[in-house]
Design goal:
single chain; mainly alpha; 2 domains
């Protein structure tokens, strides 16, 4: 059933990015969240109504995997719209911690009812995501441009803010929001509307609505962006490792540490705690060095021996297991988090697009969709290999880690030989 969900998610992701590029993100995301809540609750209702048909659960899993593909391309696109590239790694690293927080909450909720009423382990999260879908519909603002009309309508002669046309770069007319207070603002936050600023551009990337506006990028066009294929295949193996831990870690802990299912589920959340730290750390380092691929490669290089160390030390007691779980989570999820956020945003605004801003969702979907193939294969292989001993599973994980590293070598070499301090494939979109 896990495999059916992950396969549907991987296949649906490629199509989802293309669709999301052509529909209003707020509506697309809302429908996806509501449907995800529906199918998650249906899975839990199988317990309440005593359904014992494997076909029913596989159908629900496949449907859930398809509708959940609406999420990641949409939210990465929204965040990319609002934040500039100056500290993208840090900002997206902090933002991406929500994935680990969600994993932690999911594990705790599932663990709480797993031994008494496992149906609630699905119904409660289903209700949560459906409720958040309603909140998303009511409050999500896709792009700073969407605030123009609202602020223009609310601006009056007695208000503290007023819109003013100013000559921008190269003589273009830009719409600015001007405040009476006189403070400066970092260029990293230019797309954000702040009450502290003298002149805050309503948007950093000006998308001119005209007949010559470029259409959304095609699937093959996104594949031709330099770096997309390498990072996609790298994420395949990185996500293979991460999702194998996500799905199999509680069971492994029950076998290695001899804990019950609830305690093992609670302990497994430490892997995601390490993932939060690793994602933020990867973003900060890549911002300072200006080298996304190199940052990922170093963390992948350190992750392989750490995985072996975890397999050796997990039988030595509670304390060492806790420490290694946090370290493994940071090194495994750090590159995964960086690639699915900052790297995807960088490649979605590559200079080869020549100012076409309608590519971010498609690029994100290609990268995460390819990674999801690894997410489907990892838990499946772990199930097969674990029958011959857990050592085989960890050897598989270390092999995948090294393959992810090898796929980045060309990009790492390019970064290290380049005299430019910024990440590869990162440019500021300019008006034209």
């Amino acid at each position: 059933m896990d495999y059916s969900f992950l396969c549907a998610y991987a296949l649906g992701m490629y199509l989802s990015g293309i669709i999301g590029e052509r529909l209003p993100i707020r509506l697309y995301l809302t429908v996806g969240m509501l449907c995800s809540g529906l199918f998650t609750c249906l899975f839990g209702l199988g317990y309440i109504y005593n359904i014992h048909s494997l076909g029913f659960y596989i159908f629900v899993q496949v449907a859930n995997g398809l509708v959940q593909t609406t999420g990641w391309p949409s939210v990465v696109t929204c965040i990319g719209n609002w934040f500039g590239k100056g500290r993208r790694g840090l900002i997206m690293g902090l933002w991406n911690s929500h994935t680990s927080v969600g994993n932690i909450l999911g594990s705790l909720i599932a663990g709480y009812w797993v031994s008494s009423n496992w149906g609630l382990s699905f119904i409660v999260p289903g209700l949560v995501i459906a409720a958040m879908g309603v909140i998303c519909f009511l409050f999500l603002i896709e792009h700073p441009n969407d605030l123009k009309t609202m602020y223009a309508q609310n601006t009056s002669p007695g208000s503290n803010a007023l819109f003013k046309n100013c000559n921008g770069v190269s003589g273009h007319k830009d719409l600015f929001l001007q405040y009476t207070e006189c403070r400066t603002q970092s260029c990293d936050m230019e797309p954000l509307l702040s009450r502290d600023s003298v002149r805050v551009p309503v948007q950093q990337v000006v998308v001119v609505k005209s007949e010559s506006e470029p259409s959304a990028i095609s699937f093959m066009g996104a594949l031709r962006i330099p770096g997309v294929i390498e990072f996609s295949l790298c994420l395949l193996f990185a996500k293979l490792v991460s999702y194998t831990f996500l799905f199999w870690l509680p069971l492994y802990i029950t076998k290695a540490a001899h804990l019950d299912a609830k305690k093992a589920g609670n302990l497994s959340t430490l892997f995601d705690v390490g993932g939060i730290v690793g994602g933020v750390l990867a973003g900060v380092i890549s911002d300072k060095l200006g080298k996304r691929a190199t940052t990922c490669a170093v963390m992948l290089l350190l992750a392989a021996p750490t995985l072996y160390g975890f397999s050796m030390i997990s039988g030595f007691g509670f304390g060492p297991t806790v420490g290694m779980l946090v370290v493994c989570g940071g090194l495994v999820n750090g590159p995964y988090a960086l690639i699915t956020t900052a790297v995807s945003a960088d490649l979605g605004t590559h200079k080869s697009l020549k100012g076409n801003a309608r590519a971010l969702s498609t690029v994100t979907a290609i990268i995460d969709g390819t990674g999801s193939v690894g997410a489907a294969l990892g838990p499946l292989l772990a199930g097969v290999l674990s029958a011959g001993g857990w050592d085989r599973v960890f050897y598989m994980l270390m092999t995948a880690d090294f393959l992810a590293l090898l796929l980045l070598l060309r990009l790492v070499t390019k970064e290290l030989t380049s005299s430019k301090p910024h990440p590869i494939s990162v440019v500021e979109l300019k008006e034209h």
